[in-house]
Amino acid sequence: MSELLIIWAILVSQILLTLAMGCALYRMARGPRAQDRILGLDALYIIAMLLLVTFGIRTANTIYFEAALIIALLGFVSSIAFAKFLMRGEVIE
Q1: Which member of 2, 7, 21, 52 has the greatest number of CB atoms within 10 A?
Q2: Which residues cross the membrane (predicted)?
Q3: For residue 93, is it within any domain?
Q4: How far apart are CA 92 and CA 88, in angstroms?
């Protein structure tokens, strides 16, 4: 019984995460300002990371967890670079 509940909970979470990914993509495409688009991108990489973690839990494969870690690191660095670009107009000084 508890295994079936876990499988359904993971499936529902994956469906909800894909819906949230669609909302983040909409914000990236239709954001009125650049800051809104960057926030949409931040939400998108976090959702993608969580989706990979749920795939890893569902399949019991460690490659998904490693990919989620790489997405988290690259997403953080890109967020810092975009914020610096919006503040100063250049990334590398």
Answers
A1: 52
A2: 6-26, 38-57, 63-87
A3: no
A4: 10
